[in-house]
Amino acid sequence: MKIITLLTDFGLKDPHAGIMKGVILSINPDVTIVDISHEVEAQDIREGAFLIKEYYTYFEKGTIHVAIVDPTVGSERRPIVFSKDGHFFIGPDNGIFTLLIDEDTEIYLIENKKFMMRNISTTFHGRDVFAPVAAHLSLGFHLSAFGEVVTDPVCLTDIFPKIETDVIYGEVVRFDRFGNAITNIHASTLNTFIKGKKFRITIGKTSFESIDKSYYEKEVTCLTGSAGYLEFAYYRGSFREEKKVWKGDEVTVRVE
Amino acid sequence: MKIITLLTDFGLKDPHAGIMKGVILSINPDVTIVDISHEVEAQDIREGAFLIKEYYTYFEKGTIHVAIVDPTVGSERRPIVFSKDGHFFIGPDNGIFTLLIDEDTEIYLIENKKFMMRNISTTFHGRDVFAPVAAHLSLGFHLSAFGEVVTDPVCLTDIFPKIETDVIYGEVVRFDRFGNAITNIHASTLNTFIKGKKFRITIGKTSFESIDKSYYEKEVTCLTGSAGYLEFAYYRGSFREEKKVWKGDEVTVRVE
Amino acid sequence: MKIITLLTDFGLKDPHAGIMKGVILSINPDVTIVDISHEVEAQDIREGAFLIKEYYTYFEKGTIHVAIVDPTVGSERRPIVFSKDGHFFIGPDNGIFTLLIDEDTEIYLIENKKFMMRNISTTFHGRDVFAPVAAHLSLGFHLSAFGEVVTDPVCLTDIFPKIETDVIYGEVVRFDRFGNAITNIHASTLNTFIKGKKFRITIGKTSFESIDKSYYEKEVTCLTGSAGYLEFAYYRGSFREEKKVWKGDEVTVRVE
Questions:
Q1: Distance from C-alpha of A228 to C-alpha of A224, rounded to nearest angstrom
Q2: Min Cα separation A16/chain B (Å)
Q3: Quick one: which of A143, A185, B98, C223 has the most CB atoms within 10 Å?
């Protein structure tokens, strides 16, 4: 059994995710399709980039992950496919795979028309390009069947925190359903940085001098979330709303 | 493998879609169920009618499509089943299938109690009638097993644009997740109408004298959406909110 | 084929439900996973308790139901597994199973680490404990393999209506997508109470002296909803908004 996962910003009101499933199952009826989310914030490539890194490792190797946040669909932006750690990834070459791609990643352009719908719209490549390519990939085609190698994939340059001698400058990159504010500062970066030192973590007017273990400990907590990134939470409430936090707000970690 | 798709206005908060899946899988465990949307605007039969036409062709022939937007559940409105283009459709006879039904469509009443739940509520026919009928249909029963032929299905009469000599009067029928305003004017109607002529498309105070190809071209675009209907979009924003557009707002296409 | 259902308050924006599916399918690829809802109101254990009772009977016996509304994840609250009516249930021991558990229910603690993820976070037991336990249970392990018997499960004490000689004091426990206000007064309780008597049902300033059969009968209706509980509805509108009703608002049934 092959699994195809879907991450998009198409929302759940429109029939787009359902249509992609129809296209996939028409090509390979034996595939299992798993929705990760269709509620990535509209056109927020960055949010998509962080999410992909969060979920893919929980699937079996061989799983095909389709990720579409694609504000410039219909432009010259390229569709790409690549593999990493035994997983396959398909989506637009617009930076959504920034956190997965490194120098050794062998990326292929999707250009072979025989794996696409006959008529390709300028507005819905999820249906016309990415879904049929995922379905064909699940049938066993090699990556090189889809097109030429891409050596210059688009990567987001401002996605990582800035690390100086005694301070990390990070930011809030997304909110979860409970209003927890999730940053781009990974626990491994944080722990190396503060190891054995006194530190102060600041977001707006709120500061922390220790890391909490779970949400229920205090009213306002600062902890490592389930994806491994530093986050802020408000017990039985929304940190986002209580503290009036916005995406992009600065988060600093200072050591003495 | 048989596929059953579900389109409803039940929402995703309530367990209704999940309950329908339980009912279906209890009768036919081998079926694959695909959610199209459960977020059709509450009780908006018209929106459902346009959506059905948009997705069904992307599934294999033989697929069973259940579509439920059913404000008068529990009344005398009839449950029906029919086939078109090799696909099967099940739902209330309230106009939701207006865009699929023509003179040649052979429609059957759902009245055979042996294909329904033993106790039929007056509030949830998705569970008590439509889900078990879909599951039984997937087992291979013929349409005529469900009931008598229906010769007078309910059709919405105001769903098509009004076409005069030099103007089409259409309207906004729904919005997608991005706030794009989708009209009831199909590209084929539009293209035939404006062929070789100068034209002006107007919605509120906004006018267009050309059709765009994709969303990223300009701030405000007028283009054929993925379902084939004329729509209006706002790049990296919501046309609905920026232009204060409502469902039912008039859209005109004038030629000189 | 085994079915695993998921009920959570994780929402559909975050990848949590998708990650749980990845974990489950990595352990047992042959299972069918059905989403009931991931939109239980955040941290509302009570709402979860009523929902579980509503859907589980519509699945085949042998189905495994995972229910997670877990505000104190990471604390000492216990994870449990039990069976009832041939169905299996997995979730936190915080009262979410109040309406299913009785004296005869044999409940087991989930403590055997070999059925969990290697690293158990303090924030996401859906992924690290409940999903892998559900997957292992679907492979045929006996409940006693997971841990010791629990004899003192947590139950919500204020979940049932208070019944006096001539009045039932109930309350609104949740709203459905249409804004219908659903109470904790079950039809069987109600019918026994009012049998052959004149009665008056009151919520806020609205009263009813009869029970309606379906939503379309009048503008404001009082009827037995699809889950068997007394509810209030507003035809083609939202009772919640029209009548300014809140969760927890008192509902009384008085007989003469």
A1: 6
A2: 8
A3: A185
